[in-house]
Amino acid sequence: MSGDHTSAVIAEQVRHVEALLEERGLLDDGEIDRRIDEFLAGGTPANGARITARAWTDPGFRERLLADANAAIRELGLSMAGALQEQRLKVVANSEREHHVVVCTLCSCYPIALLGPSPAWYKSEAYRSRVVRDPRGVLQEFGLTLPLETRITVWDASAESRYMVLPRQPEGTDGMSEEELASLVTRKGLIGTAVV
Ligand code: FE
Q: Which of the residues 79, 108, 118, 161 is marked catalytic?
């Protein structure tokens, strides 16, 4: 069954439940749409960049972020509480020895609150199937050639669990402010298909 077909079936079921709840007066007209719109409006890669810059400049925050990301991002006024339920967030840190990359092999699960809507390539069948089998080759196509000694770990997101990559701080940026550091971070860096 293709992801698109699954989504269509789920969307149909959701509309049905929504109509029943509205009919019985348990839900105002359009309440779910409003909640989803609010959720999407707050999602932007600037949030992931802020988290990254804070982790680069505050070792205590970095430690808390890697241990319990849901709790740590609340310190920055951010949350993974979606329209319906809070998604579990795990932040995985790149190092000299290890590089992380995120995918959803099943469909397109993605930390929208921290990265905004996902790019088309993230949802593509080609990326989803190939990054698991040949991460090094796929990263190379993104222009990211990692040393052979660097271990690559692929994290498969799901409806309950989302992942964000914490890129390595570029060399020569030690004196920069948190805002300047945040401006270096890209959406691809937070997915793991770029260095920052
Ligand atoms: Fe998914």
A: 108
Domains of the chain, each with CATH number or no CATH? 3-38 (no CATH), 43-191 (3.90.330.10)
**Model confidence, pTM:** 0.82
The answer to whether residues 101 and 153 touch, using CB atoms and an 8 Å cutoff, is yes
Q: What does the radius of gyration of the chain's CA atoms come to, in whole angstroms?
A: 18
| 108 is annotated as an active-site residue | yes
Distance from the alpha carbon of residue 42 to the mean position of ligand 1, in angstroms: 20
Q: With both helix axes pointing from N to C terminus, report the angle between 45-57 and 59-67 in degrees, rounded to the nearest 10.
A: 120
DSSP SS3 for 142 = coil
Which tokens hold the place of 55?
Answer: 């982790």
Query: Is residue 95 annotated as a catalytic residue, yes or no?
Result: no
Helix-then-strand count for the chain, H and E: 11, 4
Eight-class DSSP state of 118: P
Show the CA angle centred on residue 55, arms to residues 50 and 58, nearest 5°. 115
Q: Which amino acid type is present at position 46?
A: A
The rounded distance, in Å, linking the Cα atoms of 97 and 35 is 41
pLDDT digits (tens, 9 = 90+) for 71-115: 999 999 999 986 667 899 999 999 999 999 999 999 999 999 999
Is the pLDDT reported for residue 1 higher than 80?
Answer: no
| Site of tokens 């049905």 | 16
